[in-house]
Amino acid sequence: MVPTADTHDLVIIGGGPGGYAAALYGAAAGLDVGIIENRRLGGTCLNRGCIPAKELLQTAEVARTVADSGTFGIKAGGDVTLDFSASTDRMWGVVDQLVKGLGSLLKGRKVTVYEGTGTLGADRQVTVTDGDGETTTLQGDNVLLASGSVPRLLPGFDVSDRVLTSDEVFQLDHVPDRVVVVGGGAIGIEFASMFNDLGAEVTVLEALPAILPGVDADVVKLVHRALEKRGITIRTGVKVEGQDTGDAAITVTLEGGESVEADRVVVSVGRRPLSDSLGLDGSGVTTDDRGFVEVDEWCRTGADGVFATGDLIATPGLAHVAYAESILVIKQIMGEPAAPVEYSRVPWCVYCHPEVAFVGLTEEAAKAAGHDVVTSKHRWPGNGRAMILGETEGMVKVIAEKQDDGTGGQILGVHMAGPWVTEQLGQGYLAVNWEATVDEVAAFIQPHPSLSENFGETILSLTGRGLHG
Fold first, then answer.
1. Catalytic residues per the record (predicted)?
2. Is 448 a catalytic residue?
3. CA–CA gap between residue 441 and residue 398 (Å, rounded)
4. Are residues 337 and 291 in the same domain?
């Protein structure tokens, strides 16, 4: 131990979801916690990701609602116009309020916040370097690495005024007329959906055979059709080779000589762990060939008392997964009973239109794992609440173990697309994680009329005695 160092029970490098969750949970458990952040508390999720993206997606939903108000007998009058600066002002207002609230929570729990970049040395010694180059030495009984991630780029696609990543999208001062989104994963599809609703002409370029990798094939097909129906061009199985930025536009070149012209290109091909800023030489912590910090199932690194969570490790890059991992770490530090995160059963949400939400195995994955399965699918046109909302695009699909009589047994996966399914996944999440059976879940009463009835109907039909289909 360095005698002059500030000491803490836990020193955290990174103030994003993994870091601040551990700080708040750990401080609530009685730990003396110090947290280091070199930008703004909240990390990517709060400042450059989840929150601003969903704010603009909500703007898109309001625009759709107003544009379709005539079907409800509401005369809005004239064309719907967008004041994008007002939308972004509201977005930053929400972000700022949440960042301020997070700072107040940390202060209220007596967490010490250090502004600067943290690097880890031997024996859990952490050096904080601020913007002026001044350093502070911290000593932790335990250390949590939670420095997060940054967007990946493609060769030849350096960030500019026309080439954007998810970090720069939120700095736009207007909606471009033509947008090319490179990457058809969750983030790319959310951006495509948002820009389309806000009036842009959108093209999605995805190298894989289908968009939304990891999502059940039936849901992918449905969402693909819905997006194209709204006017979004989706090209799958295409390889992007480069770009040429001209005075008036940017041209994206594809393998085979084709090209697509746009006003802005959003590169959304995933994120890489931000481990290169951590130092780590002599710390006992190792990284793999992709830059992820290597941990075991308990989020423990190779150095005693040093943990890592969130985007820094090779687990699902979701804020709520980082929360769960950080709670796991604190429980271990406290000597409390703990269990590793079940990564195959975490909830996933995509906030495009229609929304996507799922948990557990897809039908393909369940079969590949050796399960004999039975499935049930219910679409929204038969749901009264969805009809009232005017949102009938999508389905609920449940995958269950097949019993000898052909009915469903244990629920293996729940997959949804449609209105507000990101807010409906809770029942499915509990069912999959509690290893519930179809009969057990079918016994619960769904309120009527509600969107959640569709999940109940889908489950009930797997008992062999459905009501409406």
1. 448
2. yes
3. 12
4. yes
Residue 144 lies in a domain: yes
Looking at the structure, tell me whether residues 336 and 235 fall in a common domain.
no
Lay out the sheet containing 373-379: strands in order across: 348-350, 355-360, 408-418, 395-402, 373-379
Between CA 401 and CA 411 the distance in angstroms is 6
**What does the alpha-carbon distance between residue 142 and residue 10 come to, in Å, rounded to a whole number?**
5
In a domain, 348, yes or no: no
Count of domains forming the chain = 3
pLDDT, one tens digit per residue, over 447-469 is 999 999 999 999 999 999 888 76
Residue 15 is assigned to a ligand binding site? no
Alpha-carbon separation of residue 255 from 192, 197, 259, 270 (angstroms) = 22, 29, 9, 21
Return the CATH number at 93: 3.50.50.60
Burial of 107: CB neighbours in 10 Å, binned 0-12, 13-18, 19+: exposed
Domain extent for 82: 6-151+272-343
- Residue of 174, 353, 378, 448 with catalytic role: 448
**Last residue in a domain, options 269, 286, 314:** 269
Helix spans in 109-212 (H) = 166-169, 186-197
Are the C-beta atoms of residues 26 and 333 closer than 8 Å to each other? yes
Task: Confirm or deny that 189 is annotated as ligand binding.
Answer: yes
